[in-house]
Design a protein that fits this description.
With about 700 residues, the chain is an alpha+beta fold. The protein contains 18 helices and 43 strands.
């Protein structure tokens, strides 16, 4: 029988989670269920975060950047002392795989909810860990010293030794690019993990990312709980994960070999607690050790749904010295997780920052809970009104489905994402839904080159087709008219624009958001509301059933369609309207009747896509540049973002310098395709600062 004994060796009653957002909320949920008190820590940027509000106690870590808050060991230990917490759970990211932090927690007399310090140290260096795994009989890919990489070794993957999550990873296909990519990888690794060490390994253009969840106690028992497939990635960071793996399901004997290798890995380092052994596999079922994450994984919910185990609760019990009893439960059904990010896939996955006006998954069965029956689980760190800052990862939520079969799980998850109301920021929602519905995904053809193979542009196609977008624009115009009618000071009882006799039609104009669209579609809605109802140009078969500022019901060729409408005053002088319907979500930008000249920018202007720090310049005023050539680099959300020339021309304006913080929408530079007429240069910057930053 599977279970945990009741013997307790190390007791604790209050857990401080040294993390933020979704993972802090996830740990709190299991703590509450176990009757354990909770403590949150928070940066200034996270002062209003849901995880702060949910904890029994919360303590501020002054500052915003990870280095001065969630990576500050002394501040976190001080928070534990101040709040009476006697155990610390690190979550994932930040200090979760930092041996120095684990050692300091134990030295402070607190319970460390994680593996032994020696195990973290063994796996903390991806260079040394591979040597250890090879000695234990686990198949590995050989590491390459960056200093001796040759043309014959290409392509190679540059990786950060101290962390994961895609930070510090770079693909290098030309030897001439290696030095710059190593510098960029080291900079990102230092920013994210406090360790700039990087290494190289042979890069396999296609492969399957398979990982095994392990759970081990202090008494020598090691469970291989189940495998997950996490092959669909962007920037080497997982986007869609599932359990069990389609590849493992169809290759005879592969699961047993994976589980054996994973147990060998855990036993070789005396592991305790939850951990993940990651492999790169080929279609034949051969696999190679990549790394071991000595912590809980972001994608742990799919294992929980297919086993019924609460992995966080098991972490708490193992940390208390209790035993794993029996064998892990068998896998049942199928679970898929999609990571919803505030990012723009069409703009090289550019992360977004700002306010989440609304995030609602009306069909979610549970939040942070174990799904015993088919349904949707939501694990999110944001709620309506939350602000996504530039300091942290832009993940909004993990949406998880559980069903009897893989096809059912994919269909349920795609439908839940498509129906969700997500207002305020550009997200990867369309990409996720299209991927889940694609024939290749449904067939299980999910290697790490999925987006390259099947086309990012095609997979990012809006869920609403052209006709649905036009109907949504009409609904937006009618909802706006209803708003005007409700707020009218006189004759409020008449429909907005109503005339007893024929007259000029009302006109409202909307366009698609410009991001990622070379020529955004414009919808000019011209309509009359008279004694015979709605008369709208181009909508001969559409009649109006009802309209309020929030909901419009139309009859379209005899079929009733309902549209939910929400309007917000946006940034950069854009008023955005979100129209949600079963036809697909549509985002529109309401066009003003008259243009404000002060809001116009020069053609060829490069605008800051997010608040960030200028860390490097790639061109100067007067330089001739080609389309796509890097002009400068911004650092935001723990990653570097390249700002490129929109067209070939001459840099006529450069309004920033290295070390300068810029706000979203700020004009960074101007590239004049016709040549220089007048140039403007920012004040001279310290060249030594630029060299150090680059």
């Amino acid at each position: 029988m599977t279970g945990i004994s009741t013997q307790v060796h190390r007791s604790f009653d209050t857990v401080l989670v040294a993390n933020r957002g979704e993972i802090a909320r996830r740990v709190f949920a299991s703590c509450r269920a176990a009757g354990v008190g909770t403590v949150a820590v928070y940066s200034d940027a996270d002062a209003q975060s849901p995880h702060v509000m949910e904890a029994d106690a919360a303590l501020r870590l002054p500052g915003n950047s990870p280095a001065e808050t969630y990576l500050d060991i002394e501040s976190i230990l001080g928070a534990a002392r101040a709040t009476g917490a006697n155990a610390i759970h690190p979550g994932y990211g930040f200090l979760s795989e930092n041996a120095e932090f684990a050692r300091a927690v134990i030295a402070a007399g607190l319970t460390w909810i994680g593996p032994p310090v020696a195990a973290i140290e063994s796996m903390g260096s991806k260079v040394e860990s591979k040597k250890l795994m090879e000695a234990a009989g686990v198949p590995v890919l050989t590491n390459l010293d960056p200093e001796v990489v040759t043309e014959a070794d290409l392509p190679v993957l540059v990786k950060a030794s101290a962390g994961g999550g895609g930070r510090g990873m770079r693909i290098v296909r030309e030897l001439s690019a290696l030095a710059d990519e190593l510098d960029a990888a080291r900079s990102e690794a230092q920013s994210a993990f406090g360790d700039s060490t990087v290494f190289c390994e042979r890069y396999l253009e296609t492969g399957r990312h398979i990982e095994v969840q392990v759970m081990a106690d202090a008494h020598g028992t090691v469970w291989a709980v189940g495998e997950r497939e996490c092959s669909i990635q962007r920037r080497h960071q997982k986007v869609i994960e599932e359990a069990p793996s389609p590849l493992v399901e169809r290759v005879d004997g592969m699961r047993e070999r994976l589980f054996t290798a994973s147990r060998l890995a855990a036993e070789a380092i005396g592991y305790e607690g939850a951990g993940t052994v990651e492999f790169l596999a080929d279609e034949a079922g051969n696999f190679y050790f990549l790394e071991m994450n000595t912590r809980l994984q972001v994608e742990h919910p799919v294992t929980e749904c297919t086993t019924g185990l609460d992995l966080v609760d098991l972490q708490l019990q193992v940390a208390a010295g209790e035993r794993l009893v029996g064998d892990p439960p068998p896998v049942r059904g199928h679970s898929i997780e999609a990571r919803l990010y505030a990012e723009d896939p069409a703009q090289e996955w550019q992360p977004q920052s700002g306010t989440v006006h609304r995030i609602e998954f009306s069909d979610a069965t549970t939040e942070f809970g174990i799904l015993e029956r088919p349904g949707i689980r939501l694990d999110s760190g944001v709620v309506d009104g939350s602000v996504v800052s530039v300091y942290y990862d832009p993940m909004l939520a993990k949406v998880i489905s559980f069903a009897a079969t893989r096809s059912q799980a994919a269909r349920m998850l795609a439908a839940s994402l498509a129906r969700a109301q997500i207002h305020g920021l550009t997200t990867n929602r369309d990409l996720l839904v299209n991927t889940l519905r694609s024939p290749a995904f449904l067939a299980g053809d999910t290697d790490t080159a999925f987006f390259d193979t099947y086309g990012l542009a095609e997979l990012s196609t809006p869920l609403a087709d052209t006709d649905a977008q036009a109907l949504s624009a009409l609904a937006a115009a009618l909802a706006d008219a209803a708003h005007n009618r409700d707020s009218a000071q006189v004759l409020a009882g008449l429909p907005s624009g109503w005339r007893n006799l024929p007259s000029q039609p009302q006109c409202k104009t909307y366009r698609e958001p410009a991001s990622g669209v070379a020529d955004p579609r414009v919808h000019e809605i011209r309509y009359r509301l008279g004694r015979y109802g709605l008369d709208a140009d181009g909508f001969d078969d559409v009649s109006l059933i009802s309209a309020t500022p929030q909901r419009v019901v139309l009859d379209v060729m005899g079929v009733r369609r309902t549209f939910d409408v929400a309007a917000y005053q946006g940034s950069a002088n854009e008023d955005r309207v979100y129209v949600d319907s079963p036809l697909g979500p549509v985002v529109l930008v309401a066009q003003p009747r008259f243009t404000d000249p002060s809001t116009e920018v020069a053609e060829g202007s490069l605008l800051a896509p997010m608040p960030g720090l200028v860390i490097r310049l790639g061109a100067h005023v007067g330089d001739e540049v080609s389309a796509g050539q890097p002009i400068l680099w911004l650092e935001a959300m723990k990653m570097q973002h390249t700002i490129t020339a929109p067209t070939a021309g001459v840099v006529t304006t450069l309004d920033v310098s290295v070390g300068q913080q810029v706000e979203v929408g700020a004009v960074l530079a101007v590239v004049d395709a016709s040549g220089p007429e007048e140039i403007h240069e920012a004040p001279l910057h310290d060249s030594s600062t630029e060299q150090e930053a680059s």
